[in-house]
Amino acid sequence: MNDAGSGGSSRAVTDLSEDLRREFIDEAAEVLHGLDVVLDSGRHGRTPQPELIVAFRRAAVNLRGQAANHGLRALATVARRLDEYLAQAHEPLPPRAWDDLQAFLDLMLSLVEGRQPADGDPSGLVRALPVKLGFDLGDIEVRNVEVMLVMPHGAQTRFVEREMQQCGYRVSVISDTIDAFAQVVQIKPDLIIVSALMPHLDGIDLAIGLASMPATRNIPIAVITSLGDGDDRLALLPRKVPVVHKGPSFGDDLFKALDDLFLI
User: Fold this and answer.
1) What's the whole-model pTM score?
2) Average per-residue pLDDT in the chain?
3) Are 222 and 192 in contact (CB under 8 A)?
4) Which of 1, 32, 67, 119 has its CA 20 to 30 A from that of 187?
5) CATH class of the structural domain 2-122
6) Confidence band of 261 (pLDDT split at 50, 70, 90)
7) Mean pLDDT calculated for residue range 61-78
8) What secondary structure, in 3-state letters, does the chain show?
9) From edge to edge, which strands make up the β-sheet containing 170-174?
10) Is pLDDT above 90 for 184?
11) Pick among 3.40.50.80, 3.30.479.10, 3.40.50.2300, 3.20.20.140: CATH of 146-260
12) Do 35 and 105 meet the contact criterion of CB atoms below 8 Å apart?
């Protein structure tokens, strides 16, 4: 009786979880269709751009969290990138923004409507997404190279991000090493640049762990630091992990690290 009762309870929990998942997907589709209307209104000047940006970012944050809770990795990742895309948006939006936002919406709708698996591998999707705002592409050719910066927000991070964008790389910034660990496993970036000293889990520890795990050990990693060469903590890094020092030699160290990792 106990086994039968336990099995019935387990099935009930599974059924409830699936019902909640379907309910979220239906709600997500409704939200995305609503954003499509907002985008069309903004494109024709009927919705103020600041209002449009807030609506898109609010929806992206909500969808990202709920999609992750339901195991919809691809949808959560694309929603996260939509929020990142708009993080540095300013009025007026550049002309490319309208088509870029439409591309985000079309992809997310294809995920919630089942034309692509919403719980599938997101690593290929991110490389096809528009490059985020805040950077003038100009004559730079965007390359199919995904760079993850694991660094605290600030001037140094913005400088490194811009240097990577000048190389044509796609760049995402994550300010928490625990979050970064999960994102690396899912996204499989082509390069990880991590700050040595980070809250919660040091960047050095993150680099050592990623360099050791079979699933991530072939992903190039570089560490940025203000620590001196003789610091014992840097001695713990695998030899294949280059160190980029903050200060006068930063630019040269960064170029050498990219060159050593065959990324330029």
Assistant:
1) 0.83
2) 88
3) yes
4) 32
5) mainly alpha
6) confident
7) 94
8) CHHHHHHHHHHHHHHHHHHHHHHHHHHHHHHHHHHHHHHHHHHCCCCCHHHHHHHHHHHHHHHHHHHHHCCCHHHHHHHHHHHHHHCCCCCCCCCHHHHHHHHHHHHHHHHHCCCCCCCCCCHHHHCCCCCCCCCCCCCCCCCCCEEEEECCCCHHHHHHHHHHHHCCCEEEEECCHHHHHHHHHHHCCCEEEEECCCCCCCHHHHHHHHHHCCCCCCCCEEEEECCCCCCCCHHHCCCCCCEEECCCCHHHHHHHHHHHCCCC
9) 170-174, 146-150, 191-195, 221-225, 243-245
10) yes
11) 3.40.50.2300
12) yes
Task: Say if CB 243 and CB 237 are below 8 A apart.
Answer: yes
Angle of helix 49-69 versus helix 2-43 axis, rounded to 10: 160
Q: List C-alpha distances in Å: 2 to 6, 7, 8, 9, 10.
A: 6, 8, 10, 10, 12
Considering the chain, tell me which residue range(s) the CATH 1.20.120 domain(s) occupy.
2-122
What was the pLDDT predicted at 1?
47
Say how many residues make up the chain.
264
Predicted confidence at residue 134, as pLDDT, reads 66
Question: What is the C-alpha separation between 203 and 207, in angstroms, rounded?
Answer: 6
Residue 51 has pLDDT above 80, yes or no: yes
**Per-residue pLDDT for 194 more than 60?**
yes
Q: Which residues, listed in sequence order, are joined to residue 225 by a DSSP beta bridge?
A: 245
Q: What are phi and psi of 208, to 5 degrees?
A: -65, -45
pLDDT over 90 at 33, yes or no: yes
